[in-house]
Amino acid sequence: MLPRGRPRALGAAALLLLLFLIGFFLFGGDLDCERSQQGGEWWGGGVAGSLPYSLTPRVPPDGRPRPRGAAALDGDLPAGYGGHNSSDCDPPRPRPRPPKCELLQVAIVCAGHNSSRDIITLVKSMLFYRKNPLHLHLVTDAVARNILETLFHTWMVPAVWVSFYNADELKPQVSWIPNKHYSGLYGLMKLVLPGVLPPDLVRVIVLDTDVTFASNIAELWALFAYFSDKQVIGLVENQSDWYFGNLWRNHRPWPALGRGFNTGVILLRLDRLRQAGWEQMWKMTATRELLTLPATSLADQDIFNAVIKEHPWLVQPLPCVWNVQLSDHTLAERCYSEASDLKVIHWNSPKKLRVKNKHVESFRNLYLTFLEYDGNLLRRELFGCPCPLPPGAKQLQRALARLDEEDACFEFRQQQLTVHRVHITFLPHKPPPSQPHDVTLVAQLSMDRLQMLEALCRHWPGPMSLALYLTDAEAQQFLRFVETSAVLSARQDVAYHVVYREGPFYPINQLRNVALAQALTPYVFLSDIDFLPAYSLYDYLRASIKQLELDGGRKAALVVPAFETLHYRFSFPTSKAELLALLDAGSLHTFRYHEWPRGHAPTDYAHWREAQEPYRVQWAADYEPYVVVPRDCPRYDSRFVGFGWNKVAHIMELDAQEYELLVLPEAFIIHLPHAPSLDISRFRSSPTYRDCLQALKDEFHQDLSRSYGAAALKYLTALQQPRGPV
Amino acid sequence: MLPRGRPRALGAAALLLLLFLIGFFLFGGDLDCERSQQGGEWWGGGVAGSLPYSLTPRVPPDGRPRPRGAAALDGDLPAGYGGHNSSDCDPPRPRPRPPKCELLQVAIVCAGHNSSRDIITLVKSMLFYRKNPLHLHLVTDAVARNILETLFHTWMVPAVWVSFYNADELKPQVSWIPNKHYSGLYGLMKLVLPGVLPPDLVRVIVLDTDVTFASNIAELWALFAYFSDKQVIGLVENQSDWYFGNLWRNHRPWPALGRGFNTGVILLRLDRLRQAGWEQMWKMTATRELLTLPATSLADQDIFNAVIKEHPWLVQPLPCVWNVQLSDHTLAERCYSEASDLKVIHWNSPKKLRVKNKHVESFRNLYLTFLEYDGNLLRRELFGCPCPLPPGAKQLQRALARLDEEDACFEFRQQQLTVHRVHITFLPHKPPPSQPHDVTLVAQLSMDRLQMLEALCRHWPGPMSLALYLTDAEAQQFLRFVETSAVLSARQDVAYHVVYREGPFYPINQLRNVALAQALTPYVFLSDIDFLPAYSLYDYLRASIKQLELDGGRKAALVVPAFETLHYRFSFPTSKAELLALLDAGSLHTFRYHEWPRGHAPTDYAHWREAQEPYRVQWAADYEPYVVVPRDCPRYDSRFVGFGWNKVAHIMELDAQEYELLVLPEAFIIHLPHAPSLDISRFRSSPTYRDCLQALKDEFHQDLSRSYGAAALKYLTALQQPRGPV
């Protein structure tokens, strides 16, 4: 259940209402996971306090306001603090404490591949410290939506809801504002949130993608309680002298109250903003300022500040620790060296982590903590909050509960059920222009095959869709690897999809399916990462698809014959003739000739030597050629994890669906040698492993019979013939 | 400065006093990083409050006390909470808040290899959330001390001090107590802490190694403020029915107050315990109980509970969230499902993470967070606390500051200066019995060579000292890899030393030096991980050392000739004759024969073919043989990071120190092929890399000339001759 806008949200609301009622009876109404999603009550009874310090800058002789004292900087405001003399016998001020189980609302604008990576680090930091259910409202372009929808769907974090809003539809509302900030048009979109978010949403925390949490977001949410009746926007003071102007000659910033406010972290009272006519208000201010100012320099922030300068009663200043700004000439040290605790850091320099700052190393460490943090570990329940499980999680939990821990194949079955987090198009990617005979190379790999990528790029000039099985930390190493490689960073047509590691087995077929699902051309070449294609293969395949008129509906799988070299140093043949010469010289072999000839025997290499035209071959047991098929071909059977039988089952299914197997006479790929991977060496020797594989095969055959009836009988017969090792 | 007991502690105290005075003048005495190390004041003026709820179990009809309500369970106790009617106009209760910059004292008992790994996870979780300086008091056996001293020394976490206390000396104080608990004798040592810790230490938090923090330890420390004048021990109630007895027939637990208390997390007022004659008190109680009970079942916990039963005024009960106990039949859910926040979890089942519990997955995730957390990221400063830097850190900071970021070799120089965290003997290890001619194989590797370990163990039956360059998460993968390998887990004479990754280059010579420093035999065979030794090599080397009378003071390096196979599948020769046959057949080559014959040419393979006796060879430029040398040989030059010249420089230094180079006629090792490592492929193509390597070589030669004078001239001359590629 990733509610897409209203209809799903309504369904969710109904479900939540039900759960709320159940929760009310079970827990006496103490737990309100969903109350504020209904636009409901504020924790603490709706009596708003006010923050126990004034914003008014104390203006020293030099005319510049000084930062406030340590306590005013602190995010944690104990009752009785702030110069109030407790002997006055005031009624005790309710200390806003994080409300257990209340649903907190967060809105973030996010566009493009790189911001989609950034937002995940932000979300990880938020989830790490949070104790409350969260509803994320994401204003995204199509790229970010595609990435984040898949990510959250597969992440399945308990008590997190995500709604998407189409940023492109909002563009007209802000595109009239000339803006020089690096965030571009999307940088202005926070202004229109009150109109975009659901009308029953009362409060929301708005965040930039470049902030990192170092504390529980509920503490920030609790600051809403300090808002007076008139206050609508909570903001932290700007931690630079930007709005004083005079940073350079002709520096003319937008108007602001004192040092102004930073909009990386905002608390919005949406109800009051709507009531107060926010849209008109900011548009009027912006229009007027733009009569004398050429453009915004800091996007939405300039406009927020101009509005606040005009209507200072709108703003509730927040303690500085909730937005520690790390720009080049930041004054943030005054904040964090006196405060007992940092709450949120904000990489608000265009240089981001490369900003110069004497403490930047420590801040970077906090950021890296979450950048490299294993997101799987955030699938933690909120104890004592009766929130419904994310979509799919319930079925998954049930399926996992049905597994027998004593079963020797328990780990296999657990791995099959594992839902891996998937981050599609991890790096910027330009889909190839649509061409009727185009082919995408599809493969999967883990860290130990990264060094194959450059060679593969040299051998295959066409589009690729690659699934990478990585930890979060490895994903960052991979990112750096691509950035430092001239060959890889020059390619925009290679899509990298990160599938996050979980469990003891390499989920080979799940990985293949991820890469296959993301291929955008009509045809796919289903390869493996250890193979290098003939230099001409990409062109040749497209020509063959055209020549064989596959686009006319002919159901065929084009077989690319596979070879291997056992030599570690090796000069790649540039033609079939050269390949045959190497084969005759014993420098090359047909693939797995020594250990498992059955896997490729039906390709009929003897025929291939002489062939001038594509020729048809028949399926036989254990055949597992590398093939080119239409993108809508059957998916791989994800029950096969680890090593063994993963391709065999797929080819069997192609045959069951009556794909012709056509061998291409000029096509070839060559397998390069490598040390056995850890996964393979760990399991190959295990008898349990073999037994479990056999059990999986049997189950696969049963399913095949169910799907294809009597026609599937031949596969079972073939299986029962005596054979060699797996 | 890792103070070993008193003398160092005194020095530290003097230094701290100085810094305190500086701090006082600079910061007006607000920051007291060191005050309580001096046995000083409690934050808040020393007025102790009392926790606003009573421990006395509310006894329901079934006679078993029920857990207290949610608020009493919470770790965070806001002022005005707890049924106090604020309209009473009481003077406001001082809410104990974590004191900024106060030094917190923590004591932990730790013995053996496995506990030394556990304690690091605990410490990581503590450091992650802490905002205060910490002083760790570690009561350790020799193994743990060796490991942890190296670890903390290389970790260099700001504002963390570590003192060690010899657990073996304390054994007589507790060994008279029969104890059935799995923690053994060390499980009883918490009892003697008041006598062991420095007499001026007033307060200490005592932790078991199997607890994990989920919050700032200062919040726990702040609970000292609730102690009444009589209270000396803060404890969390036991979260099982153990002390009620009757869990099974003849279950006779030690006496306890109600459900009893768990001693995984203890607050101790050491001053009052000493005053109250604690040592006599617990010994008397234990002696008396042991008249009727055969032994303690839960080690120290039984005795603490018996004492408290007798003197209930001694205990200050702590909120349950500070010790959430995850044993098999825990009642902890009553605590954590009502509390807003967990503070500390305690894996107090002997099954540890394999304990059965419906929420164990979520708790495990918290644990795994810190198990796999990159400890380097905890080298964060405490902003605004004027604590001195850890030993070496200041010089390091200065050296790093002197580097020029614009220098093309900046990253090289930064890497050379990097102090890597080192965890020696990461896995249980039994040093080999001392033998006069014994040889340890010394090598280093990273994750991508793990699969070499089994083969290496088969080829080398003797002791090994291996440095592994890993991330924290990889170290756990490595652990599982060893545990699941029958070959590896059978070996106790292989010492694995984890050096934690940091920086872009593989610090090859630093790794070699770590492995070399930990070798315990008189001789070492300096090998590389990609080589397999002849099956007979270990025996042959020991025989040769004896025969050549190296222990008589003959200064020699025994050369083991190196070969390579380019074939991925390969049958290892069992004798020199077989090796020569393979060489003649072209299946084997002398090492790097094709790309860099100079590296091994001086070994004189032609001579070796015929040799029956060890023969002497002369050093020549670029010679880099694999050698056997005495353990006290020169260290590798750690300026060489990444690839290139790292062994060459070492051999040059051996020659400069006039080691004879003797080639052994029956010794050989063979290099197996592998894909180029990521590190090598990333840098080999870079011209900057070559330039920097040249600069490093020049600097090495200058240093050599300084050390060896005119004798080093020959190396410079050799360098200046025209040569091939690096």
UniProtKB/TrEMBL annotation, chains A, B:
Functional note: Bifunctional glycosyltransferase with both alpha-1,3-xylosyltransferase and beta-1,3-glucuronyltransferase activities involved in the maturation of alpha-dystroglycan (DAG1) by glycosylation leading to DAG1 binding to laminin G-like domain-containing extracellular proteins with high affinity and in a phosphorylated-O-mannosyl trisaccharide dependent manner. Elongates the glucuronyl-beta-1,4-xylose-beta disaccharide primer structure by adding repeating units [-3-Xylose-alpha-1,3-GlcA-beta-1-] to produce a heteropolysaccharide. Supports the maturation of DAG1 more effectively than LARGE1.
A cellular-component GO term for this protein: Golgi membrane
GO terms for biological process, alphabetical: protein O-linked glycosylation via mannose
Membrane topology reported for the UniProt record: Single-pass type II membrane protein
GO molecular function, one term: metal ion binding
Localisation: Golgi apparatus membrane
Swiss-Prot/TrEMBL cofactor(s): Mn(2+)
Coiled coil stretches, renumbered: none
Lineage: Eukaryota, Metazoa, Chordata, Craniata, Vertebrata
Name under which the protein is recorded: Xylosyl- and glucuronyltransferase LARGE2 isoform X1
Family annotation (SUPFAM superfamilies): Nucleotide-diphospho-sugar transferases
Domain of life assignment: Eukaryota
Subcellular location, principal: Golgi
InterPro entries: Glyco_trans_8, Nucleotide-diphossugar_trans, Xyl/GlcA_transferase
Keywords, alphabetical: Glycoprotein, Glycosyltransferase, Golgi apparatus, Manganese, Membrane, Metal-binding, Multifunctional enzyme, Signal, Signal-anchor, Transferase, Transmembrane, Transmembrane helix
Stretches for region Disordered: 54-75
Pfam families recorded: Glyco_transf_49 (PF13896), Glyco_transf_8 (PF01501)
Organism the protein comes from: Vicugna pacos (Alpaca)
PANTHER family in UniProt: GLYCOSYLTRANSFERASE-RELATED, XYLOSYL- AND GLUCURONYLTRANSFERASE LARGE2
Reaction equations catalysed: 3-O-{beta-D-GlcA-(1->[3)-alpha-D-Xyl-(1->3)-beta-D-GlcA-(1->](n)-4)-beta-D-Xyl-(1->4)-Rib-ol-P-Rib-ol-P-3-beta-D-GalNAc-(1->3)-beta-D-GlcNAc-(1->4)-O-6-P-alpha-D-Man}-L-Thr-[protein] + UDP-alpha-D-xylose = 3-O-{(1->[3)-alpha-D-Xyl-(1->3)-beta-D-GlcA-(1->](n+1)-4)-beta-D-Xyl-(1->4)-Rib-ol-P-Rib-ol-P-3-beta-D-GalNAc-(1->3)-beta-D-GlcNAc-(1->4)-O-6-P-alpha-D-Man}-L-Thr-[protein] + UDP + H(+); 3-O-[beta-D-GlcA-(1->3)-beta-D-Xyl-(1->4)-Rib-ol-P-Rib-ol-P-3-beta-D-GalNAc-(1->3)-beta-D-GlcNAc-(1->4)-(O-6-P-alpha-D-Man)]-Thr-[protein] + UDP-alpha-D-xylose = 3-O-[alpha-D-Xyl-(1->3)-beta-D-GlcA-(1->4)-beta-D-Xyl-(1->4)-Rib-ol-P-Rib-ol-P-3-beta-D-GalNAc-(1->3)-beta-D-GlcNAc-(1->4)-(O-6-P-alpha-D-Man)]-Thr-[protein] + UDP + H(+); 3-O-{(1->[3)-alpha-D-Xyl-(1->3)-beta-D-GlcA-(1->](n)-4)-beta-D-Xyl-(1->4)-Rib-ol-P-Rib-ol-P-3-beta-D-GalNAc-(1->3)-beta-D-GlcNAc-(1->4)-O-6-P-alpha-D-Man}-L-Thr-[protein] + UDP-alpha-D-glucuronate = 3-O-{beta-D-GlcA-(1->[3)-alpha-D-Xyl-(1->3)-beta-D-GlcA-(1->](n)-4)-beta-D-Xyl-(1->4)-Rib-ol-P-Rib-ol-P-3-beta-D-GalNAc-(1->3)-beta-D-GlcNAc-(1->4)-O-6-P-alpha-D-Man}-L-Thr-[protein] + UDP + H(+)
Stretches that traverse the bilayer: none
Signal peptide: 1-33
Protein's UniProt keywords contain Transferase: yes
Family: In the N-terminal section; belongs to the glycosyltransferase 8 family.
